[in-house]
Amino acid sequence: MNMNNKSKGIESNQHVLTTKIKEIIAQTVHNLMHPLDFYLVSEIENPLLKPAIGYIRYSSLKQKDKYSVDIQKQEILQRAKEEGYYILLWCVDEAVSATHNRAIDRPWMQVLYQTALLDEFQGAIFFYDDSRISRQTSDFVLQVYKPLVMLRPYLKFYCSDYSGVWDPDDVLTQIRSLINSHKSEELRNKTLAYQSTILKLEQRPASHLPYGYIKGTENKPKIDVSNGQAYVVFLIYYLSSWGYSNKVIAKFLNACKIRSPKGTDWTQGTIDKILHNYFYLGHTSWNVRESRNNSKRKPIGQFELFPGTHTGIVPHYLGVLVDQIRNFKSTYGQKMETPFLLKDLLKCVQCDCVLEAKNTTSGKSNSSRRVYRCNSCKEFIVIDTIHEITFQQLFSYLSINHKQMFEGSKKLLNKWKENLKKQSKEIDKDKEYVIFLERTLDYELIGHEQELKQEANLMLSELQSIQEKILHLEEQIDILLEDENLETLFNNFFECKHEALSQTELRCFTLHFIKEIKYDFKTKKPAIEFSKTPFLTLEGWGKLTTN
Question: Rounded to an integer, what distance in angstroms lies between the CA atom of residue 228 and that of residue 403?
């Protein structure tokens, strides 16, 4: 009877413990890579054994299918059994570097830490070897071990590759920790040296190829059309070039049952990564992120970019259009899915004010009443009226001026290219002048040697950054000046019919070709100023470089 009561007490305690562990996992780990029962054991094989936590870690995705987890599991299970424990919870940090991630920053180490502090947990912690918990010599000891032992003095740690309780103050343990740290640093230095050598040869260092590519020959990746991934990448760029948001594109792909690169549903972030990856345009980029812990992209000129290193999935004209849409969204707002197709383009002739897009539909009305309204004179025009007039004129204008716009764009692009070259030469002169001043200033009289040198270096860095942007733009113009690319770009628009375009596509179309519409409320007539060319992103640079 006493044994039955004891058994029931153990089961009750385990139920409370597992419930709390589930809550910790839900709050700490956002994307489980396996079902919950992979981590949390539901049944006790032997009630006499005490519960314990097993910690497993591997650094790279390359190790995922190499039995790393299974090997660590078997060793930990054997050691736990020898010490009189069973593993209740497996904390598995997969593809998590211990060199770049402190112990307490790893998600499953956080689960381990919080679980060990539960009153219901009276067990121990097991791991495979010292390198699994740390490669920074002291982070695990200072952030996990010492705080836990101070709050739970009975808590014991075991390493599966040697006997006895694990002790961070033991000389052999400290030696192993130093060796692990040294190995990690040595490997890091070798990797950086290899990457630097390969980049100097303008080749892509060995790394995971982007979605849509497979290994080819002679260091040249090959476009993968076997499972349709390359077509998906092209579709993403195409939809984005027509103004569709990342959210809409992700929703569309999910509705089509197309899986993301990770085999899961598409998200806005996944779409964004593909649209910002120069690899799809045939270029190799490296060190694009601010840092390992900061995923913000560096601006062009601050990371390595090697153009034309391989065959791109996305044609250059499509990349130009996607950049242009990005520029439109920055200027006119992120939302392209709007019934106000002429928002921020209409101006009142009498007041010289931009008309406000306004929904004046009353709450009781069954019909919609959207208008463009002048906040100064209070005059307004219903959107359907001005849209009909505008699009009739726009498509008529494009039909008549197709050839003239094509030839005019070529001339304008060549003019911008000349201006960019002149600007680059001027920057060369500015750089020489800064270097001359830095060398000839009498620092002893001024007394600010260090400050002036830093200022000179900063100016040189800024001038170099501008020059690299100009060079990148020159390359874009050269690509567009190829007749095939330019003609494809124009046909992308001129073959369109008004009735076949969605609201988003019409908004996009409008921003490409209309610079401004001045509406006269007295005569009830608009005066449309058309853009000289659809290359508005480049047009801004063209104006900038004419000064």
Answer: 36
The two most distant CA atoms of the chain are separated, in Å, by: 100
| C-alpha distances in Å from residue 6, one per residue of 9, 87, 121 | 5, 20, 17
Q: Which domain holds residue 111?
A: 2-180
Q: 377 and 475, same structural domain?
A: yes
Same domain for 374 and 265: no
- Residue (of 172, 180, 191) closest to 140 by Cα position: 180
Residues 277 and 354 in one domain: no
**Per-residue pLDDT tens over the stretch 46-57:** 777 899 999 999
Yes or no: say if 231 and 225 are a contact pair by the CB < 8 Å rule: yes
Instruction: List the end-to-end C-alpha distance of the chain, in Å, as a whole number.
Output: 96
Residues 57/96, Cβ–Cβ less than 8 Å: yes
Residue 196 lies in a domain: no
The token pair that represents 189 in the structure block: 């230095």
> What is the reported pTM?
0.60
- What's the distance, CA 158 to chain centroid? 39
Residue 198 covered by a domain? no
* Confidence (pLDDT) at 376: 93
| DSSP-assigned beta bridge partners for residue 157 | 125
At 171 the three-state DSSP class reads helix
State whether 159 and 28 are in the same domain: yes
Q: What are phi and psi of 4, to 5 degrees?
A: -65, -45
Q: What is the CATH number for 16?
A: 3.40.50.1390
Nearest C-alpha neighbor of 132 from the set 97, 105, 100: 97
| Confidence grade of residue 302 (pLDDT, cut at 50, 70, 90) | low
Pairwise CA distance, residues 183 & 176, whole Å: 11
Residues 539 and 396 in one domain: yes
Whether 155 contacts 85, CB under 8 Å: no
As a whole number of angstroms, the distance between CA 379 and CA 377 comes to: 6
**Is 200 part of a structural domain of the chain?**
no
Q: Are 521 and 379 in contact (CB under 8 A)?
A: yes
Which runs of E-coded beta strand occur in 35-135? 50-57, 85-93, 124-127
Instruction: Concatenate the DSSP letters of all residues of 327-354 into one string.
Output: HHHHHH-S----S-TTTTTEEETTTTEE
| Cα 89 to Cα 512: distance, rounded to the nearest angstrom | 58
- 64 band by pLDDT with thresholds 50, 70 and 90: low
Do 414 and 481 share a structural domain?
Answer: yes
Judge if 472 and 380 occupy the same domain.
yes
Share the mean pLDDT of the chain.
Answer: 81
Q: How many domains, the chain?
A: 3
Poorest-confidence range of 76-80, 263-267, 310-314, 438-442?
438-442
How many other C-beta atoms can be found within 10 angstroms of the C-beta atom of residue 417?
Answer: 20
- pLDDT tens-place string over residues 519-532: 999 999 999 998 76
Query: Which residues, other chains included, contact 300 with Cβ-Cβ below 8 Å and sequence gap of 6+?
Result: 468, 469, 472
Together in a domain, 451 and 380: yes
Q: Are 412 and 405 in contact (CB under 8 A)?
A: no
* Packing angle, helices 503-513 and 316-332, rounded to 10: 90
Q: Is residue 233 part of a domain?
A: yes
Amino acid at 226: S
